[in-house]
Design brief:
heterotetramer, A: 305 residues, alpha/beta, TIM Barrel, eight-stranded parallel β-sheet, 10 helices, B: alpha/beta, Elongation Factor Tu (Ef-tu), domain 3, Rossmann fold, binds flavin-adenine dinucleotide, binds flavin mononucleotide, binds FE2/S2 (inorganic) cluster
């Protein structure tokens, strides 16, 4: 074993390696999140938490498509207050926790952030980009002024770094990233799912109960890489890549495009919670074989050509 | 349309080739599906009825080269709707999902409560095919509710033990009481069980005391069925993917939840009440 | 054989069946387009033609990714004037021709449309959505006012129906579709490719010479279906679906979502030019088995549930 | 990394294990690649040199369980850059693409002009493996330009006929003239040819007069290599996918273009001048 380190620093948050689960994937349960950490993740991300409990949409909430899955869970969650105990338990178990959260108004965002921050999370991930509840809650993230305002409001109350997670369903994602940076974001997570839908020709109707849903998995990867690439050219804060990471190569691609860490979601379906350890080991050998000393050395390297 | 190369998690629409009434208002729905024909006993599918819901159902027939089935107990909106379907109607099918039962055993006891027989009957058939004749406790509230009675009788003959809460047929009392009695009489090495969780929890504790391995098929709220959303969590396990069948070692880990609490669709803990 | 008809009418343009090749796929050569028609397409679509010849980007211009391909051809084309003879030859061979075209300014769009319209095409497809030349030419299609203006300018000179092809890389595609409708568009083509990129971890750099490219193929399908769905709810003009159509099921899905016809591009890679005939035959049996008399009967049917 | 399940159209990066100089400034680059090991003679790959270009190159060695190679003639920016690469350097590889030559024949004549020998040498090897010994005309401007001379001599011995424009070695004159002479002497049933298009067009017409089948490997501007963009069109054919090898029947269809005109990268027709 060489002197190689896999640890990363994201806006002051130091993690043992650059992988996390994507928000909404396994994050509704404390013990499952602990299993994610034991599976090798550098930190865990909770389900997006709102001000009150939500059951989410009716089933079908998920359907597989070529190259990925479509989901319209509809942000089911037990509410931020309820989750405070889960967070405390996870912290007690030694697990670094990023709390994903959302609200319907700027006030709600701030209040939820306050609750979670007080619960002792290591970072907050502001989800202003869930495609499945747009009509209900307004698409705050689609506009850079909104993004700036909501980020600033959250930053006022947050005692931890704030990651702002962006939607790829916009005309110019770098403009929105700039809004988040102006609002004081400590990092950008890019990206959430693409809005899509699936139809069944025998039933002659949309499959998801919510009609449309978010496309994740390998099909999303080229778009997510491009988002990270563009944002890296635009802002100075760190980026967390997300979208279709299935193996170490995918993870390294995101790092080369400018991400400092990656989140992994859909790949858990095929590769289990062991995917985190496998990706981390793959990154380790990549660094080793290519003579790099730490993850930071390859962040953004593809821009330098 | 069909295609055996299709991955099991891909949704496909199947026509019901037969719909039969079972004991106690339950209904079996038969359909042709290559993926289901290759399922393991204990695996389940997601049945989609457009505009209504998509719900998990154990395979009650695994039709190798033939039709497979699910058997549905009408308890709510979706299940009642499904029980009204007719041959010729179509349903969406995803799966088979989950792990299924492990077949290794020498002297197995099977304990089915109510519709729990749905997943345990194909298990019994597989065991018999492997040369193992299980003792099968089929429990229900009363004689009318004894599902798959004929099918199991034909398969197991003396091995089938009936139990009714009201004593209208066979052992009088809960299936779990009947199982405890049998466990004291014979040296079973594995107990397979599916049914009301309180029953299964009782059986688990008794079997644990006696050093008998348990395989229990659990129910939790299933949304994605592919191990992503976490809504089906019990402790560190996902019922949809790591389960639905949990073994003794796993049940020990979730001792604080099994038979006691589960998550509602929002992720809040609620009491297990049946 | 029943009384079944596969013919469709798109804004007055009557086609023998609802399939076409997607713009840019085989459309740079007259004989190849004739082969597409002989392969079974209802009409053929030319490569997007501009005011002057363009060589396009350097190689690599295409790379396959999971679920699709990324291309950054960079709109190579011999120019509209040059293509007049090709169009006349195709018309002489009895092939219905849709001319895809673009310009850098509204004037250029109008001039090119005029040239092609005079050449005798059956319809024009206004491409205000090519993701690969944005920096060079501005992204006209990203804005509904621009789309309205350019459509109106083209409509002034066009003697044939004008299809306006939209990009999915926008925050709200239905708003842009409305702009096109207001500008007088006769139909909407939805959609062009999603902007993505691919990186190689050994070379540590983007693969496409242009860095970013357009994602097409099955990976795009859920997004394209959703675009058609949303546009169908918004405008009254016909829609031509495009994005990931590989087999008849995909085509029927687009029809059910509200498309009156489909364009097929990437699928030609795996299935050859025979894909058109195969898709058409599949649509025919679907209609037959389900007791429909013509394609129109299933257009938009998934909305009625 | 590698993986034989990878589809040939997926880009992968390969290290050059060997780089050797060939006759006439040409260079052969050797690399290990499962997909190329399974190629047919006449198929080509796209070689990516980052920051420079990606260009089509015929496989000059198809290394069954071993290394494969391409052989490059430096004619412009990309090919000159490639010819300067060293062992240890990396290139991107997509493919093998295209149809390759059809091997059915009894008495074949092979006519290679210049670097055209790259695709025809593996063809000759495959023919010999199948028990057919082709007559192989290796043509070049002068003796120094005769590529693969030793390799072909070892393989074909008397079957190898050398031709140089200046007569510095073997037949004096164009390879096509040499081929015409041979066609009059012997009853060949197939002519395989790769080289300058004007040479191939001449051979095609002569072979057509004599009723001999032709398989000619063509060059057109290759961008996508997977049959989508149309930039490589000759008549109704895509050189990248339907070709690069066209047969007599196809060559008849494109009579008005073959040896006469091709598309430049913008799609405008230009004259074929070599
Ligand atoms: C692995 C598994 C296998 C099952 N096998 C069978 C079977 O073979 N036959 C059978 O009749 N039933 C089976 N069930 C139970 C069946 O899924 C529920 O009875 C059904 O979902 C109830 O739906 P409903 O709309 O009719 O009832 P509701 O009125 O919606 O609810 C009634 C009960 O069913 C539960 N339920 C509702 N939706 C779900 C869901 N998506 N996932 C889990 N529980 C849900 C509710 O929590 C509630 O306890 C199985 C459950 C699981 C988890
Ligand atoms: C199927 C096929 C197999 C080939 N096999 C070989 C081989 O084994 N060895 C070899 O040395 N050469 C081969 N070539 C030719 C080789 O691809 C060109 O010589 C090379 O692309 C020139 O690139 P350049 O940048 O050095 O030259 P440039 O200066 O760019 O151009 C020189 C000539 O090469 C042509 N060319 C450039 N790029 C391409 C391209 N992408 N596709 C087709 N032609 C191009 C130009 O039209 C021009 O005629 C093959 C070509 C094809 C189509
Ligand atoms: C089942 C499921 C639930 C999700 N829930 C959330 C969520 O609550 N909040 C959120 O920000 N993103 C959510 N996402 C999006 C993921 O966090 C992630 O952005 C996306 O799936 C892309 O990553 P992947 O391709 O690795 O899955 C969810 C995704 C899936 C598949
Ligand atoms: C090689 C290639 C070239 C393309 N060129 C054009 C073009 O010139 N004009 C255009 O409007 N779209 C162009 N497109 C986009 C297609 O027309 C189509 O919108 C997209 O590929 C989605 O359809 P598909 O998934 O069936 O390929 C091109 C696509 C490909 C793959
Ligand atoms: S139902 Fe989603 S993880 Fe089990
Ligand atoms: S190079 Fe694109 S079709 Fe041949």
């Amino acid at each position: 074993m060489s002197q190689l380190s896999l640890a990363v620093d994201i806006a002051g948050l130091r993690l043992r390696n650059p992988t996390m689960n994507a928000a909404g994937v396994l994050g509704i349960s404390g013990p499952l999140l602990k299993r994610v950490y034991e599976g090798g993740a550098g930190a865990v991300v909770t389900k997006s938490l709102g001000p009150v409990p939500r059951e989410g949409h009716h089933n079908p909430t998920l359907v597989t498509v070529e190259g990925g899955v479509l989901n319209a869970m509809g942000l089911p969650n037990p509410g931020a207050d309820y989750f405070v105990d889960v967070i405390r338990w996870l912290k007690g178990e030694g697990v670094p926790v990023v709390a994903s959260f959302f609200g319907a108004t700027i006030e709600e965002f701030r209040d939820v952030a306050c609750t979670l921050s007080d619960a002792g999370v290591d970072a907050l991930e502001l989800n202003c980009s869930c495609p499945n509840v747009v009509e209900e809650m307004g698409m705050l993230g689609a506009d850079c002024l909104n993004t700036e305002a909501v980020t600033a409001a959250v930053k006022e109350v947050a005692k931890t770094p704030v990651f702002v997670k962006l939607s790829p369903n916009v005309t110019d994602i770098s403009e929105i990233a700039r809004g988040a940076e102006r609002g004081g974001a400590d990092a950008i997570t890019a990206c959430n799912t693409l809005i899509g839908m699936a139809v069944d020709v025998d039933m002659r109707r949309p499959i998801l109960a919510n009609t449309t849903g978010g496309l994740s998995g390998p099909a999303l990867k080229p778009v997510a890489l491009r988002c990270v690439w563009e944002i890296a050219k635009t802002v100075d804060i760190p980026i967390i890549g997300c979208g279709g990471v299935t193996n170490w190569r995918d993870a390294v691609e995101f790092l080369l495009c400018g991400a400092s860490a990656v989140e992994i979601g859909t790949a858990v379906m095929e590769r289990g919670v062991e995917v985190f350890g496998m990706v981390v080991e793959g990154i380790r050998s990549y660094l080793e074989v290519n003579g790099f000393k730490e993850v930071k050395d390859i962040v953004g390297l593809a821009h330098e050509t | 349309m069909s295609g055996s190369r299709m991955k099991p998690d891909t949704l496909r629409v199947r026509q019901l080739v037969d719909v039969t009434e079972e004991a106690g208002d339950m209904v079996s729905l038969y359909f042709r599906d290559v993926q289901c024909s290759q399922a393991l006993p204990g695996q389940y599918v997601m049945i989609w009825v457009p505009g209504v819901d998509e719900v998990p159902m154990s395979l009650s027939t695994i039709g190798r080269r033939k039709v497979s089935s699910v058997t549905v107990r009408p308890v709510g909106e979706a299940t009642r709707y499904i029980c009204d379907l007719k041959a010729g109607n179509m349903v969406g099918v995803r799966g088979p999902f989950g792990n299924g039962y492990t077949l290794e055993c020498d002297l197995p006891l099977v304990v089915a409560g109510g519709v729990g027989a749905a997943s345990l009957t194909p298990l019994a058939e597989s065991l018999v095919t492997r040369g193992v004749r299980p003792t099968f406790v089929l429990g229900a509230r009363n004689e009318e509710q004894l599902v798959f009675r004929e099918r199991l009788k034909n398969l197991l003959d003396e091995g089938l033990v009936l139990a009714t809460d009201d004593g209208s047929c066979g052992f009088k009392g809960f299936a779990s009481d009947c199982a405890l009695k049998l466990m004291d009489e014979r040296q079973f090495d594995v107990v397979y069980t599916c049914g009301p969780e309180l029953m299964m929890a009782l059986i688990f504790r008794s079997a644990e005391d006696r050093g008998i391995q348990v395989q229990a098929s659990l129910e939790r709220y299933i949304k994605c069925a592919v191990g992503l959303c976490g809504s089906c969590a019990i402790g560190p396990y996902r019922v949809c993917k790591d389960g639905p069948v949990l073994t003794t070692d796993q049940l020990k880990v979730v001792r604080d939840e099994f038979g006691l609490q589960r998550m509602d669709p929002s992720g809040q803990a609620i009491k297990v009440d049946h």
